[in-house]
Design goal:
about 325 residues; about 65% helix; two-stranded antiparallel ribbon; mainly alpha; 12 helices; 3-stranded antiparallel beta sheet; single chain
Length: about 325
């Protein structure tokens, strides 16, 4: 009897092991299918935005969307090309410096602070103006933004920072729809790009390929101050500002200094400084998401947000003044 009972237990253990093995296989297959399905969906979405396969897009020196950062940022999100980081903030800061709204105050050989010039804010778009206002408020009564001031400020004002991220996606969408480059779609990310919008999306991806290739910039890039500023601004948007700056420095360090109005040491410091600022934006977004998750858990609600406009730290940095 004991032998029969032991055999029965062994059979039950074998059955449990068999069932566990089957469940493990099923779960692995489901996970694999989800990954493959996600990749396939991303490829289809890119093709809808571009009007062709991404591999068919050639490099381009033309500024996408006429240099409009709102529209370019939104489209990067739709293409799934926006890396984990608020590179958009980096690009806006650069452009505000070039337009004179933000001034770089050099402290010593490798450090600087940022100051604000309200006289040059009249032409800022809504995204730039709100970022400018947040940075200026973080600077405090002296109006000089120093290391870590924005990080400390954003920890207390994470809802406002997150609101800026979400509104920037909506502003990009509205701008594209106003120019008939987006059609239809009742919700964010559901619109269809018109033929003109697809053409600009291809230029956007082609411009990213151009800036990512040192040989292309060296051999085919124009050596003009204003154009190099645009290279740096869009390099920041693409998350490769440090790489672009290094390439431009290797090509012509004198022209880079003229374009940025800063020496190379200060340029590198600004890359680091702005990376910290954008990292603070990432952290603020994470805090907002965590707060929303807690609220949803308490009240049975559903959290939301947008995938456009990115998250936190970026590779790009700020560069000293000069008009465009």
């Amino acid at each position: 009897a004991k032998a029969l009972e032991g055999a029965r237990f062994e059979d039950e253990d074998e059955d449990e092991d068999f069932i566990g093995g089957i469940l493990s296989i099923i779960l692995n297959l489901v996970g694999f299918a989800a990954v493959v399905g996600g990749i396939s969906m991303l490829k289809r979405n890119k093709k809808r935005v571009l009007g062709c396969k991404p591999s068919e897009v050639q490099w381009s020196r033309e500024l996408p969307f006429g240099g409009n950062l709102q529209e370019s940022n939104y489209t990067l999100g739709r293409l799934g090309e926006a890396k984990k980081g608020n590179f958009y903030a980096s690009a806006l800061i650069l452009r505000m410096i070039y337009d004179g709204a933000i001034e770089v105050l050099k402290k010593d050989e490798k450090k600087a602070d940022l100051a604000f010039n309200d006289a040059f804010t009249g032409k800022l778009d809504a995204d730039s103006r709100e970022l400018y206002d947040m940075m200026k408020e973080a600077a405090g009564s002296d109006g000089i933004l120093q290391d870590k001031e924005f990080s400390r400020w954003s920890r207390k004002h994470y809802k406002r920072v997150n609101g800026w991220i979400e509104s920037s996606a909506q502003n990009g969408r509205d701008s594209l729809k106003g120019k008939a480059m987006l059609e239809g779609g009742l919700s964010l990310g559901r619109e269809k790009y018109s033929p003109e919008g697809q053409a600009q999306a291809r230029i956007l991806l082609g411009f990213k390929k151009f800036l990512s290739d040192f040989t292309l910039i060296s051999e085919r890039g124009s050596r003009e101050v204003g154009l190099w500023q645009d290279y740096l601004v869009f390099g920041a948007l693409f998350g490769i500002a440090d790489k672009v700056a290094k390439e431009l420095h290797d090509i012509d360090p004198t022209l880079l200094q003229e374009a940025t109005a800063q020496d190379w040491d200060t340029v590198n410091w600004l890359l680091w400084h702005n990376n910290n600022l954008a990292g603070a934006i990432t952290n603020a977004q994470a805090r907002a998401a965590e707060a929303m998750s807690r609220s949803s858990g308490s009240f049975g609600g559903f959290g939301g947000g947008t995938s456009f406009g990115g998250g936190g730290g970026f590779s790009g940095g700020g560069f000293g003044g000069g008009a465009r």
